[in-house]
Amino acid sequence: MAAFAIIGAALGLLVRPRPLGVILPVLLAAIVEGSVLWMIGVMEKQPNRELLIDRLQAIFGEGWVGAIGPVAAAFIGATMAAVMSAFTDPAGPGPVLTADGIQRRVGKDGRYARAKGMVEERAIHAKAESRIDSILGL
After folding, report:
1. Sign, Cα dihedral of 13, 17, 19, 24
2. Mean pLDDT value of segment 42-69
3. What does the pLDDT average to over 45-68?
């Protein structure tokens, strides 16, 4: 149960988006527990497997009731890690106010985008733009 809680906490901390970081460890724990229960069901039909079945049930729990504990531990560990890491995530860079009073916003890539009024129109820009338009036939 402790292993599922630790794995759940690690995935809840590291996986983004946060809801996926909670769902993934629960699914992994359910898959592991379900596969062990399936293996026990297959081994019950074979002779001389009682000792192995008893040891697997001691480790993973007996039946579906025993499987609820590790899945719940993974859910609780992942949820707590996701909530706590949401508080410790660094805040993204905020908008910057330049000396001219122009506010710059942060783009998706973390770089600052130009706002209107940051670049003044000059004659050389208009001349280059008209040259490009004449070449392209616009």
Report:
1. negative
2. 91
3. 90
Structure-token pair, residue 57: 């049930």
Q: Spell 93-107 as b/e; 16+ CB within 10 A means b.
A: eeeeeeeeeeeeeee
So what's the pLDDT on residue 17?
A: 87
* Gap between the Cα atoms of 116 and 108, Å rounded: 18
Average pLDDT (67-91) is 89
Residue linked to tokens 């149960």: 1
**Phi, psi dihedrals of residue 104, rounded to the nearest 5°:** -110, 135
Token digits of residue 97: 């106010």
User: What is the C-alpha to C-alpha distance for residues 117 and 61, in angstroms, rounded to an integer?
Assistant: 67
* pLDDT computed for residue 77 by the predictor: 94
Q: How far apart are CA 72 and CA 26, in angstroms?
A: 8
Amino acid at site 101? G
Contacting residues for 28 by C-beta, under 8 A, at least 6 apart: 7, 11, 74
Does residue 61 have a pLDDT over 70?
yes
